Amino acid sequence: MHIALVSEHASPLAALGGVDAGGQNIHVAELAAELVRCGHRVTVYTRRDAPDLPDRVTARPGFAVVHVPAGPADHVPKDDLLPYMGGFGAWLAERWAAASERPDVVHAHFWMSGLAALTAARRTDLPVTLTYHALGSVKRRHHGTRDTSPPDRVGYERMLGNRVDRVVAQCRDEVEELTRMGVARRQIAVVPSGVDSGLFTPEGQAVARTCPRVLTAGRLVPRKGFQDVIRAMRWVPDAECVIVGGPPGRPVAEDPFGRRLVEVARLAGVADRIRMVGAVPRAELPRWYRSADLMVTAPWYEPFGLTPLEAMAAGVPVVASAVGGLLDTVVDGITGELVPPRDPAHLGRTLRRLLADRERRLGMSAAATDRARSRYGWPRAAEQLTAVYRSVAGAMSGAVA
Ligand code: UDP
């Protein structure tokens, strides 16, 4: 099949270059690569966000990345991109009108890409699938008036859910949220993200350490719960906590939230046991995960969560907030433990108990790797997605015939 992936703000090239990449960049890059390995032709459409980008690049795994002119050729925060999605969609429609560029199926990533894809698909009669990656209703519940999303986001997301040919949800919690929003269950297929189990392995080098270690990783934003992990360390007196993440290529001290975390550690009296190592290139991450006795992830909410899955693939048990995608990836008591979000005392006591029980951790480590490899491999995800693509493309050609 010729598959078009639309990812308006998250370019897979950022993930391949190892700079400033969030989960969506990595997901799109790894999905595109796997689909190519399965023999598909893949083109990723992302917004031109710098003037010197080529129109089209072939990324090393063999997929094309097309930079779509929509809005200023400069960085624009994703919450401000909505006015450009009409133009993005019109550009795609024109492109896909040429037989040589016309895909068999479109897979949009994030709701704004869904809008652009639907605009284009209406004019070209192409089937569209959509992965939200994050839902506005969840964000609004947690951020309230500080939510910077466009005010109509939830309405657009509901509309998209019922108009695209299939929604690809990443976990059971998302399915529940979507059905509560009014998206029909028959519209939804569940295909979790994959993890690169060739990169994240238990075997290999580990960063040196001198005492028991818990590790947490991700973008330094309040909703990831680093402040709770730091406070939890009061209950874990003999261990250190490594925090991986920060502004790419710059020290953590240059990040306002990073500075706040340093203050949280000082106030909690644990500053001497918190190591904020900043952003780590993806290729270096396995060495960091392997160095830890436990990985901890304590978000308020988490649409999917790649970092715990990466740690599991690297053989590290995960203590996670019982929210979102983590309810599926972490099996409580088997591959790690689930704890309530925003409860540092509970988290701290759980970490202390597990750190004291080496046998239990060894069992969890083996189960974690096994689960990551057997349930979250990219070949499996690509196979399931291909079935979804074929089903919507088949339905469309049947309808036309
Ligand atoms: N990551 C990285 N270097 C860092 C911190 C994170 O490469 O210093 C990667 C990490 O490996 C993961 C992604 O960034 O693949 C974050 O994805 P996740 O789903 O955990 O969170 P998101 O950023 O999408 O909310």
Automatic annotation (TrEMBL):
Classification via SUPFAM superfamilies: UDP-Glycosyltransferase/glycogen phosphorylase
What does UniProt give as the signal peptide span? none
Task: List, in alphabetical order, the Gene Ontology terms for molecular function in this entry.
Answer: glycosyltransferase activity
Q: Give start and end of each Glycosyltransferase subfamily 4-like N-terminal domain.
A: 22-196
List residues of the Glycosyl transferase family domain.
Answer: 212-369
Q: Name one GO biological process term.
A: carbohydrate derivative biosynthetic process
Alphabetically list the UniProt keywords.
Glycosyltransferase, Transferase
Q: Give the PANTHER family listed for this entry.
A: SULFOQUINOVOSYL TRANSFERASE SQD2
Q: Know the name of this protein?
A: Glycosyl transferase
